[in-house]
Design a protein that fits this description.
By secondary structure, the protein is α+β, with helices and mostly antiparallel strands. The protein has 2 domains: about 100 residues, Translation initiation factor 3 (IF-3), N-terminal domain (Ubiquitin-like (UB roll), Roll), CATH 3.10.20.80; about 80 residues, 2-Layer Sandwich (Translation Initiation Factor IF3), CATH 3.30.110.10. The chain is built from 5 helices and 9 strands, in the order H-E-E-E-H-E-E-H-E-H-E-H-E-E. It has a 5-stranded mixed β-sheet with strand order 1-4-5-2-3. The protein has a 4-stranded mixed β-sheet with strand order 6-7-9-8, with helices on one face. Strand 4 and strand 5 form a beta hairpin. Monomer.
Length: about 200
């Protein structure tokens, strides 16, 4: 018999011919069947009925008789809780639920709109439309007034611009953070109202 020296070709089981490197790639979050190291477990049947505390050997035998897997669902409990189930089907349904949850999840972005202290009326209206569009799409808006040079001495002008903006969009949003001066900018954050 020839022994291969390359570790990538060692096999865990000569009958199944599962390469060792493939075995380490597969990772599970639950212990199943022979991986469970407890002496006794609290056993839950395939239909969800409580069977009681059994030795690991008896629990494995019940799972084998039902042609299902023994899965450790609560390893930190005393004794660990194991359930008889089809592990492949369980993982498939779990992945399906996770995918559905990700699909229904709404990611809220923070959009920023800059104003100047000496902004003209038409420019203000354009920026206001952008703020309304972002809020209607469900995103938060960071409205900031940037001061250049000596404009910083008249911070009250920036305060008036942001207060005017918050009054004009008050129907569809809440002020999450009131106008506050940070460095050479005055910042206010608006969040859309929830429909609950």
């Amino acid at each position: 018999m020839r022994v291969l020296t390359n570790p990538h070709f060692f096999y865990l089981d000569q009958q199944d011919r599962i390469p060792l490197w493939r075995w380490h790639i597969i990772s599970r979050e639950h212990q199943i069947n022979d991986e469970i190291r407890a002496r006794e477990v609290r056993l839950v049947g395939a239909d969800g009925e409580q069977i009681g505390i059994k030795s690991i050997r008896d629990a494995l035998q019940l799972a084998t008789d039902a042609n299902l897997d023994l899965v450790n669902v609560a390893p930190t409990a005393k004794p660990p809780v194991c359930r008889i189930m089809d592990y492949g089907k369980f993982r498939y349904e779990q992945q399906k639920k996770e995918k559905e949850a990700r699909k229904n999840q709404k990611i809220v972005d923070l959009k920023e709109v800059w104003f100047r202290a000496n902004i003209e009326e038409h420019d203000y209206q354009v920026k206001l439309r952008n703020v309304l569009k972002f809020l209607n799409e469900g995103d938060k808006v960071k409205a900031s007034v940037r001061f250049r040079g000596r404009e910083i001495t008249h911070a009250s002008i920036g305060q008036k611009i942001l207060e005017r903006l918050s009054k004009e969009v008050a129907e569809i949003c809440n002020v999450e953070r009131a106008p506050k001066l940070e460095g050479r900018s005055m910042i206010m954050i608006l969040a859309p109202k929830t429909n609950s």
